Amino acid sequence: MSASGWHLAFAGSRVLVVEDGAGRRIPSESDLATALATDPGALVAAHVPLPPALGQPCHAYDLPASFEAPPRYALLGLRALHALVPEDLFRAAGTALQKVQWLRTHRFCSRCGHATERHPLHEAMVCPSCGHLHFPRLAPAVIVLIERGREMLLARSPRFTPGVYSTIAGFVEPGESLEDTVHREIWEEVGVEVGDVRYFGSQPWPFPHSLMVGFTARWKSGQIRIDHKEIEDARWFTPEALPPALPSPMSIARRLVDDFLVRVAVLR
Hints:
Blueprint: E1 6-11, E2 14-20, E3 23-25, H1 29-35, E4 58-63, E5 73-76, H2 78-82, H3 87-105, E6 117-118, E7 125-126, E8 133-134, E9 139-148, E10 151-156, E11 168-171, H4 178-190, E12 193-205, E13 210-221, E14 233-237, H5 252-267
Parallel strand pairs: 1-4, 9-13
Antiparallel strand pairs: 1-2, 2-3, 2-5, 6-7, 7-8, 9-10, 9-11, 10-14, 12-13
């Protein structure tokens, strides 16, 4: 283990944190060594390299899913971690978990079944038998805020926390451009047509391995017609009459909503 940077250890999808008088925090190298002292064989994989864009070295460790946090430690899901750490550290944790899960799920070649190895040059697992490369999985998805004057169309999935309404989102399918996906997902889920599709921004989304690509779009025609599969309700909302709850502040969905509310307020 290296002393520099962040040290992120995962049991399943939960990250190990230290509980002390200052609250909960990511463990240092010595904290991690202490946590593993009673079970030194628990470390499955160490030092998964992460992108330089995260700002400093980050070391990811894989623990058995059955690992139990010792006294003064806890295991938290990423959503709970977001409220405790700065945004750059949360992004590092999300990246680390995706890399750890990639190593867990690519131990054998999907082409021939042989055990794989880390490639010496590329960020890939390589099969020494057939040479096939297995890169980390990334699932691009679009997320769209639909505008109609001072109204925005928000919907809720049966999977959402009660009361939460959010923007329309969906995964990109083979052969589609991002704009194609915007039009298809909106039509499939809420039955309206849009125009003036504009790029807004993007966000790595480690639930479990997505890249959310945000857009805004203007309503063109049609009445709301929900699909009753992905969507259980959808409505037009104004700044004066918002839904009971909005998306999490950590999400690009919330950034889209907040941006719309600011723009509408300026235009009043």
